[in-house]
Amino acid sequence: MSEVILLAHGAGGRKSADLIRDLFLRHFGNPALNVLGDSAVLEIPGGKVAFTTDSFVVDPLFFPGGDIGKLAVCGTVNDLAAAGARPLALSAAFILEEGLDLDTLERVVASMARTASEVGVPIVTGDTKVVPRGSADRIFITTSGIGIPFVAQRQTPPQPSPQRGGGYPPTLPPRCGEGWGGVCLCAPSPECAAQGDAVILSGTIADHGMAVMTCREGISFESEIESDCAPLDTLVASMLEACPDIHCLRDPTRGGVATSLNEIAVQSGVCIEIYEPAIPVNENVRVACELLGIDPLHVANEGKMLAIVPQECAEAVVEAMRAHPYGRRACVIGRVQERPAGRVHLRTALGSLRILDIPAGDLLPRIC
Amino acid sequence: MKYVDEFRDGALALSLADAIRRECRHPLKLMEVCGTHTMAIARYGIRRLLPDQVRLISGPGCPVCVTAQDEIDRFIELGRSPDTILVTFGDMIRVPGSRASLEDERARGADVRVVYSPLDAVEIAAANPDRRVVFFGIGFETTTPAVALSVLEAQKTNLANYQVFSAHKTIPPAMIALVSDPEVAIDGFICPGHVSAIIGSAAYEPVARDCGIPCVVAGFEPLDILQAILMLVRQAVDGRSEVEVEYSRAVSREGNQAALDCMRKVFVPCDAEWRGLGVIPGSGLELRPEFSSVESRKSKVESGKPKVSTECECGSILKGLKPPRACRAFGKACAPEHPLGPCMVSSEGACAAEYRYGAES
Asked: How confident is the model at residue B359 (pLDDT cuts 50, 70, 90)?
């Protein structure tokens, strides 16, 4: 029987990673893509540019704390922010299902406009397609974005190597650690975590995923779970101001914090150890996760940033984050160690240690 | 859920672990029957807190794990007919039958829906009067009352298109079958908390009295489990074999009468095949004759001969004869994203727990 695409291929866990590696990278592979950052960072005449794209399909379209429009702007802005880049411009492409209520579309578009204006980024180009009823679920949105580094361009090496960096067509900046005078020129990048670094999280986890799941399934709790959907560009700007040498930034969306940390551990060839009681989880989210048998570390966030920073900067970065409305509950959740490379370890409240893995596929509630 | 934190206190956990170490006189093999215990034991690293003398082995307690391939094949077969909607609990969806899983079938066009409650399946039936809606009835005594309720609800509202494919199982017959196997040496059972809240702790009295195996019903927090282990150690030291309840905040001797009545009104015991364990007499539940129109299994289904993997050693793992890592397929041919056997399928399965949270080997 030939293989077919399963929902699990899109869930951000191991099946998604396999699909990216075995199909997309096999056909598209190039230095900029192979980094698998939230954005690609390209060197063009005059400096660096970050470039990213993301598609948004969510049911319900409107949920506590956000909607598909706000999500479509925040998602791309945050992918740029995770490359240390300030958004310059966005595109927006819509696939609409025949029969969609025009009012619904206008609510979504108005929400996109509001969020883009909060960020101060224009939506400068777009596209619209309509497909027959049943060929899509109401609205699918794809946004792309370009951005430039928040931190003023560091001095580039006088003699870039012929294979990497500089010139046109755009190529990848020098590999982590290859920089001039020992200063890493590619950070923040998922390849740059180093032994001794501190792992910082900007706030509570699993809010978005559980808000959508409980809303979709009609499960209600004493207090409604709200999505954390938010644009993090200015949060990242203040973090980079406190520490220009942040090694990695990651926007832990699908697959959650566990998946993002595992990707960094593999790409940087390090072990990341986090301390479970330090990870902030809202009480109602924790209850929902316990009830459904889901690990909050596997659940999507849409307004959180993970940062891996040199230990000596950790305090300054956390302080800068806590002064920002989207980083009030920022804290250090772990440390980077040398080995075992590619692993994420979690220290439990009882002091024991276990491996933190990425989810295999869709998050499935358990039955008893 | 504030109360839960009190059952996760690190200092108290260490003092319980100390007491276990001090009081345990000889090696003990304790089986946690329930998959949720297996998961909690791994999630909190409880094995590492215990002395070498106390060995925890994972029993058959994951309802998804023990659903036979043949049952999955037959359920999938029902969905091949375009007028049928298959409805299931989420953790069943990735479980491979002998040829495919419900997830594969959904991707190939079968109408497979995931629900949190069997009553949602009744709603689906009400909304689709011209289609047959079949609910995959899996689970132990914890989930069975809700499925029974869905059958009664469908009957009350005259829903003729709602059916249940009953693959339900019950825990006490399986425990007795396990201790009757001469290969399996168990010195005590950590009995499931949720199941016991329904059936009551009295259900284990034959196991303790007739088989001479100490039983302690435990909750699911780390301190619950450690306390239950200490109680089993003390029974062993004293030479007692009794049923004790650690999880007294939820479990009584008699259980939940309303839930039991509902279950008995709809289901009767039958023999059942457990994946990896074979047929255990009286360990299944089928719909009573008066609900025969709701029973989908009675309809003739041809699913061919099940193709059971020869590499999978779930049978030995479920019986506690082998640890997951002793299986040739573990982590290679069999992993959570492509599970061969039942123990790798559910997040509660012994192999999945070991794969996710087990010691670095």
From this structure: low
Q: What is the pTM of this model?
A: 0.83
We find that the CATH architecture of domain A39-149 is 2-Layer Sandwich (3.30)
- Residue B323 sits in which domain range? 314-357
In a domain, B336, yes or no: yes
- Give the nearest chain A residue to B108 (CA atoms): A4
Of A4, A357, A366, nearest to B356 by CB-CB distance is A357
What are phi and psi for residue B13, nearest 5 degrees? Answer: -60, -45
Question: Is there a domain that residue B352 lies in?
Answer: yes
- Rounded to a whole number of angstroms, the distance from the CA of A192 to the nearest CA of chain B is 25
Choose among A8, A286, A348: nearest Cβ to B103.
Answer: A8
Q: Are residue B51 and residue B179 in the same domain, yes or no?
A: yes
Min Cα separation B138/chain A (Å)? 9
The pLDDT tens digits for A327-344 are 999 999 999 999 889 999
Mean pLDDT value across residues B55-81: 86
CA distance B135 to chain A (A): 14
With a pLDDT cut of 70, the percent of chain B lying above it is 92
Asked if B271 and B283 touch (Cβ cutoff 8 Å), the reply is yes
Listed residues B184, B213, B245: the one ending a domain:
B245
Q: Which residue has the higher pLDDT, A134 or B5?
A: A134
Q: Is B234 a member of any domain? A: yes
d(CA B336, CA A359): 9
| Cβ contact, residue pair B14, A350, below 8 Å | yes
Q: Are residues B199 and B334 in the same domain?
A: no
**Nearest residue in B to A343, CA atom:** B360
Sheet strands (E) in chain A: 40-44, 47-56, 62-63, 66-67, 85-97, 123-131, 139-149, 198-201, 248-250, 271-275, 306-309, 331-337, 344-347, 353-355
Residue B9 lies in a domain: yes
Å between B198 CA and nearest CA of chain A: 12
Q: What is the ipTM of this complex?
A: 0.74
Measured between CB atoms, which of B8, B48, B347 is closest to A366?
B347
Return the H-helix or E-strand segment holding B287. strand B278-287
Q: How far apart are CA B350 and CA B100, in angstroms?
A: 22
Burial track B297-319 (b if 16+ CB lie within 10 A, e otherwise): beeeeebeeeebeeebbbbbbbb
Kindly list the domain boundaries of chain A, sorted by start residue.
39-149, 186-359
Task: Identify all chain B residues contacting A350, using CB atoms and an 8 Å cutoff.
Answer: 8, 10, 13-14, 44-46, 49, 222
pLDDT tens digits for B220-248? 999 999 999 999 999 999 999 999 999 99
- CB contact under 8 Å between A366 and B194, yes or no, is no
CATH topology of domain A186-359: Phosphoribosyl-aminoimidazole Synthetase; Chain A, domain 2 (3.90.650)
pLDDT band at B300 (very low <50, low <70, confident <90, very high): very low
**Residue A347 distance to chain B (closest CA, Å):** 9
- Per-residue pLDDT tens for B317-338? 877 788 889 999 998 888 877 7
Interface test with A, best of B221, B337, B338, B346 (most A CBs within 10 A): B337
User: Distance of CA A189 to CAs A24, A41, A205, A268, B26, Å?
Assistant: 20, 9, 22, 9, 54
Q: Strand, coil or helix: what is B273?
A: strand
pLDDT reported for residue A183: 47
Is B94 in Cβ contact with A350 (below 8 Å)? no
Helix (H) or strand (E) holding B283: strand B278-287
Q: For residue A296, report the phi and psi dihedrals to the nearest 5 degrees.
A: -60, -25
pLDDT of residue A171: 43
A345: closest chain B residue by CA: B357
For chain B, what is the mean pLDDT?
A: 87
Taking an 8 Å cut-off on Cβ atoms, the answer to whether B139 and A354 are in contact is: no
